[in-house]
Design a protein that fits this description.
The structure is a homotetramer of 336-residue chains. The first copy, chain A, has 336 residues and is an alpha+beta fold. The first copy, chain A, has 4 helices and 19 strands. The first copy, chain A, has one domain: Jelly Rolls, CATH 2.60.120.580. In chain A, 15% of the residues lie in helices and 32% in strands. An 8-stranded mixed beta sheet of chain A has the order 1-4-16-6-14-17-18-19. In chain A, strands 3-5-15-11-13 form a 5-stranded mixed beta sheet, with no helix packed on it. In chain A, a hairpin with a 6-residue loop joins strand 9 and strand 10. In chain A, 61% of the residues are buried. The mean pLDDT of chain A is 98. At the A-B interface, helix 2 and helix 3 of A face helix 2 and helix 3 of B. Chains A, B, C, D: It comes from Streptosporangium vulgare. Chains A, B, C, D: InterPro entries: FmdA_AmdA (IPR004304). Chains A, B, C, D: This is Acetamidase/formamidase family protein.
């Protein structure tokens, strides 16, 4: 088993997809063990640390990477299987912002109303018990919520020589902020540049649908990813696969366009996998498809379109990359 | 037990919320047994029955009612508990349309491209087995999907002397098309006119999130509703409650506004039920809230914001109307 | 010349399109002299009259009418030519609102931020000089702006037995709030019910593009309209014609859909009037069309698509109704 | 007078804002004479040259530059005055596209309908007569339209180390496609990186509001720009000034957000220039502001908010940069 361990120093973190040289080269079939900082760069450690004071734009939402996958060329697809995502600290933080989140004016949904108050919450993480604990700021109310670790941000270098802030989700991936991106899931990303140049970050101990206040339970993570390269197969928008489901994503504004992209891709993909006529696939997805919301707060919004594989008779997907990576991941965990 | 049975003749069906006299008066605390036609008025019975030929605008999406609830006045809330929703036939139908659905141009998302093909699918319903069977139109592919009956349309007469097509969801309810509206669920609707004037229709044997092609598995239903009136309590947008969850809805365009309305209402409602500061409630909903998509095809789009009641310590909701109606419904079913 | 004078008492005003009986019957070819109250029902007379205190929902944006046009049937088109629009008082008012306008959260763009302040401005109208005078509320700044009277609201009863608040613009017309609706303009409205049932209101002494704060320079008006009926010609969305231009409107959300509707209608109309292939018409409109913004604050937003008639070789439009009504209006003014 | 002439070779053209070294260094106060290719890179020369065949993604919409302005630092503002914009050829072209334009499905407004037909139009340019001639493709119809040269694309390197395709408009400028960007206009752009790194391209012989089909009358241009640097003054979104008007721009989706940004900036700017309270400025802009549509087809949509300077008592704007550059431009033209 080819295992590569990488822990970035603060100055190694990246704030864009594209426009940065690789931090390492990875052979397809490898396991990558790494660490990701939280979206605040670890600078918000208590309810007194207001992001507007301790963080500096644009040094937000750092990602670890990019990693160059040997042999990856435009038109190929990277398969990144998340073997494990484990909180690196026993606490996490979240915040509201004056101009960020779905229920406040922002720099683009520009308003003349007074801004929202900036406020920080600190959560306790109990990995053994599998819970995070919420504490209200203005009363004694406290409650345990299920721990459900995920990565908000995963992506590759964009096409067309672009470099995009890590906070933006688009066809290259990025800050999709979907709770579906858990351990056990394989993410498929179309390669736009030599080496693909993938990076990951923005761990969440858990997140609601839409990340309505603008941040999740933000946590540093120790994460293990198994990497494959699928040659000669392109992928228009990031796709996810777990043991039971296929998922397409779309990131755009307005939110209905994110929905359209994700559903269109799932319909098209279904048609390709099964040989169904596109209208037959449209009908089938209409009745059995789910649409878990990713984010409704970032510079693009993200929707996921999700289908049980059993509906399609368990078709062969990306040359069975998920099954292979799942097995590799289990072997890794057993041997660790 | 006060049980009222009502089966509409075709000429009794209604195509608007508002603008119509009541078909019957109901005392609070009653059970209503009734029948709803499918969204095509039962006129599409085979794949050869194109809606554009057998249906006539605006005679689409008929609802049964409206029912006058005695004592209901503006500022009150109706609680409608869906005791049972059972397919009235062993088949159902669905269709694509030239100018309706999320992945085609419409009369408002106006396009110069050729329209989508109109095509009909007929499903078999096996109530005993709890499945509906999909048959592809252009291949032999067929698959069983779980039966999951629901009502796409429920609402009251709108405020401000409006009458709205039943296809439109808004603050009065209407065609929300959320799969969350199953048997076992209580719907809360704010009363705008004397008697409230509720009506229901548009049964679906099942539906995907967003109803992407524009129609679900459309079915006539035998439905039983238990009715309560909550005096002096207003409800800004339709809310739902089941044994485990609270849900707020929002219906608007663009889709992010439907999301905003539903999340804003759930945050506000959470704050009221628990005494949490609104920002504390915002933070909590952000981390534990779900956002099941209703429809992304109707004249307004619908989103649902959903929270486990356990998170809030099982607060007292609408004077425990759901628990009471749930018990009444179970008694009715046991005695039937 | 058939001249009909009608001045409504306050209790005669209407707050919906549809759902109301006609106040009078008009023969095609007639002139209607009438009076319209301002959007506040005349209740805001000074900067101390906050709308939230002196007005009562839903008694806002009253319209005068509806008028039954003899012989009008579904599928016909009403041509309403605005002969003159004259301020009925030497003052007008405007306001900001806590939850209305483009730069504040609203009931659908729901926000948790504090609402916008409610504030009233009173303008002086000098009809002889052709100006309105703005006075700042919080400084001595004052400036004269050109008087440019228009009607924000004109429409007919909607299709499908709907009744809509007068504040909503849609395919039936309504509160489009376009400054293009001046004296000298003919409005074409598709007839949905017997008699058409047109009504007008919401006079503005002038208005910026988009009515960004939610209200214009709101004024009561003495208005004269010349009416024709065009039999057997349908009109999908309200259209306008002046001596130099053809205009199509679209009202929807998001704003790009209002743009799409208006441009699609102008392209289609251009193709019909000239025999141009639709793609040739699309290209031509792309290069010479204007797109004056109507409103970006109402329950639907309104865009106008505008083309110089000279570009099309002055085609015959609606059987030359505008030219005929223009001449009738001039004769009326000369004889008055 | 410091005049710098620069004519790019094809390999010198740039396809991003950001991510590219400067082609030249310019001292503030200089005149730049240059050449810009059309959006097709000059490869579409007849109606037989379909862009999908002769052009290659992402080599579309080339810009000339970037130019490093000496002394420019983040927080400063560049003032670019367009002295003259003259078509470099006696023809221009336009096209419809299968997945681009406001009235067709696109990669983000994803549809299952058949795509729009790709078709090219070639226009004659008669600079002396001041007209462009349209020729229908599918009939003999032809008409002269006023020549009104402008640049669709002008911008600087974005903030946050981003590189963006030239087709995207955003806070850094880019492909705003507003017909207001004519000769005689000064554009103000906030500086994000050392030297500012401005570039220009995408000349249009003329354009309608919204560029509805996706392209204007696309033309190579000989363009002269006068450049100033305003130290220590930042500019949040591109602004324009001509002899009579101030203009703010906003680029976003949905279109109402582009409107909100532009109006919010104009209100804020008005308040700063005049000392008016923000609500007083909001009211004034609401009644006298225009909102010319830029584009409703690009990856972000663009709106312009426009105000007559006379309304504000001709305030001092950007240290009178426009007046100074206007005078410099006139001197240059007189001496040429």
């Amino acid at each position: 088993m080819n295992v590569f361990s990488y822990r970035p120093a603060p100055e190694d973190l990246s704030y864009t997809f594209g426009g940065r040289p690789a931090v390492a080269r990875i052979a397809p079939g490898s396991i990558v063990e790494t660490y990701t900082e939280d979206c605040f760069g670890g600078l918000v450690t208590s309810v007194g640390d207001l992001p507007s004071r301790v963080c500096e734009f644009p040094y937000l939402n750092p990602v670890t990477g990019p990693f160059h996958v040997e042999g990856a060329e435009p038109g190929d697809t990277l398969a990144l299987h998340f073997v494990s995502i484990e909180p690196a600290r026993d606490w996490a933080v979240s915040a509201t912002f004056p101009h960020f989140g779905a229920l406040t004016g922002t720099h683009t949904t520009a308003m003349l109303t007074p801004p929202l108050e900036e406020l920080v919450w600190r959560y306790d993480i109990d990995t053994a018990a599998g819970v995070v604990r919420y504490h209200a700021r203005r009363s004694d109310f406290t409650v345990e919520l299920p721990l459900d670790p995920m990565h908000g941000t995963v992506g590759v270098a964009p096409a067309a020589s672009e470099a995009r802030m890590t906070i933006t989700p688009d066809a290259h991936g990025g800050n999709m902020d979907t709770p579906e991106l858990r351990a056990g899931v394989t993410v498929y990303l179309g390669v736009n540049v030599e080496g693909g140049l993938f990076a990951i970050g923005d761990g969440h101990a858990r997140q609601g649908h839409g990340e309505v206040c603008g941040t999740a339970v933000e946590a540093a993570m120790n994460t293990v990813v198994a990497v494959e390269l699928i040659k000669g197969v392109s992928t228009p928008w990031p796709r996810l696969e777990d043991d039971g489901h296929l998922m397409s994503t779309g990131s755009a504004r307005p939110l209905e366009d994110a929905y359209r992209i994700s559903q269109h891709d799932l319909v098209t993909w279904t048609s390709e996998l099964t040989g169904l006529d596109p209208l037959d696939a449209y009908q089938l997805v209409s009745q059995i498809g789910e649409a878990p919301v990713g984010n409704v707060c970032d510079t693009n919004y993200t929707m996921v379109a999700k289908l049980p594989k059993s509906t399609l008779g368990r078709p062969d997907v990306y040359e069975s990359a998920h099954d292979r990576l799942r097995a590799l991941g289990r072997r890794y965990l057993a041997e660790r």
